[in-house]
Design a protein that fits this description.
Blueprint lengths: L7 E5 L4 H12 L3 E6 L2 H11 L2 E4 L5 H15 L4 E4 L10 E3 L6 E3 L2 H26 L13
Helix pairs in contact: 3-4
């Protein structure tokens, strides 16, 4: 796919890290970029710098993701590119011993669920919604509707 100003992209986690670098690289090629992130201040700043738009999106929420895609599509049209960089981590042992009394401590299941909601289900949620939108597009010269 030729990346230029005829292509719209959504970058989740685009306010920092790998997502920010990706948003900047796409914008440098002329792509119309929408940044999805929870970091509003940083996301707004990056979007302003690259000539894109910022959508405050929580990838764990259908309503939030739907609102983000609606805002991005209203500004740039249907995205042909989705880059999923939203994610988090937690450097905690799955099990350990208490230094005080030697009892076994377990990684809290709620914390693990939170990681899965963002890193796995949030990614799937965005991919599914973007792919459904891409199906409405006519193929480009190379036969692609999106990626």
């Amino acid at each position: 796919m030729k990346l230029d100003n005829n292509v719209a992209a959504v970058v989740t986690g685009g306010a920092s890290g790998l997502g920010e670098a990706t948003a900047r690289a796409l914008a440098a090629k002329g792509v119309k970029v929408a940044i999805f992130d929870l970091q509003a201040e940083k996301g707004e700043a990056v979007a302003a710098e690259i000539g894109g738009i910022f959508c405050e999106v929580n990838v764990t929420s259908d309503d939030s993701v739907d609102a983000g895609f609606a805002k991005a599509r209203a500004a740039h049209g249907q995205e042909r590119v989705l880059i999923c960089c939203a994610g988090t981590g937690n450097a905690v042992k799955t099990a350990s011993r208490s230094k005080e009394d030697g009892s076994i401590k377990h990684f809290p299941l709620a914390a693990f669920d939170w990681l899965i909601q963002i890193n796995l289900i949030g990614t799937f949620r965005c991919v599914a919604k973007s792919a459904a939108g891409m199906l409405t597009l006519d193929p480009m010269e190379d036969g692609e509707r999106g990626a």
